[in-house]
Design a protein that fits this description.
- The protein has six helices and no strands.
- The protein is mainly α.
- The protein has a domain of 145 residues: Formiminotetrahydrofolate cyclodeaminase monomer, up-and-down helical bundle (Four Helix Bundle (Hemerythrin (Met), subunit A)), CATH 1.20.120.680.
- The longest helix has 42 residues.
- The radius of gyration is 20 Å and the shape is elongated.
- The termini are far apart.
Length: 212
């Protein structure tokens, strides 16, 4: 499925079917793209406004970065689906003879690594989006800052969702060193996401619901 040519309704229909893709990884990428797009909406409502003139050069730069990241996150949806296909095919390999079992295990191990790398890469991109949204929440229009808050929550859900697609694959790996390395990378990104996500949410909340 090419996300640049797919209607949301078609994506949802395939997501709810028994097709192997899209799945949780693809859904995470789409949610993250929505989150980044919300951040970009705040920028669109801020650019050119006299009140925020001092930030205008940065706002223009952020808009370009947000556009690029939104596009990349949609590409991550396609990449996640492509990376899962070898694993899906590996599950169907015969396992009757010792030779078939050995070959299947080898193919499975390689496919599990590929299927884990895609959501890890997606997590990296989501993390970039979260840092952008945090800055947007700092300098964006106060009239639209709640959308930055929704955007960061989308990204929080997305990065956690993507991590589950790492862990379900690393859990099956025979090579526990490789599994541990991938788990560590995912855990580090989750810790960073919790920090920036909570900071951004609190920043937005304080702006729209000050202490009475």
């Amino acid at each position: 499925m090419n996300m640049s040519e797919t209607r949301i309704q078609q994506f949802i229909e395939e997501l709810s079917s028994d097709a192997p893709t899209p799945g949780g990884g693809g859904a995470s990428g789409l949610v993250a793209a929505c989150g980044m797009a919300l951040g970009n909406m705040v920028l669109s409502l801020t650019t050119g406004k006299k009140k925020y003139a001092e930030f205008q050069p940065e706002i223009e730069s952020l808009i370009a970065k947000a556009n690029k990241l939104t596009e990349q996150l949609l590409l991550d949806v396609d990449a996640d689906a492509k990376a899962f296909l070898p694993l899906s095919e590996a599950y169907g390999l015969p396992k009757t003879t010792p030779e078939e079992i050995t070959y299947r295990e080898k193919v499975m191990e390689e496919a599990l690594v590929v299927a884990s790398e895609a959501p890890l890469h997606m997590m990296d991109d989501i993390m970039q989006a979260m840092h952008l949204i945090h800055r947007i929440a700092e300098i964006g229009s106060r009239l639209a800052i709640s959308d930055a808050g929704v955007g960061i929550q989308c990204c929080m859900a997305a990065i956690r969702g993507a991590s589950l697609n790492v862990f379900i694959n690393t859990n099956l790996m025979k090579n526990r060193d490789v599994a541990a390395d991938m788990n560590h990378r995912a855990d580090s990104l989750l810790a960073e996401a919790d920090l920036i996500g909570n900071r951004t949410y609190e920043l937005v909340l304080q702006a729209i619901r000050p202490t009475e």
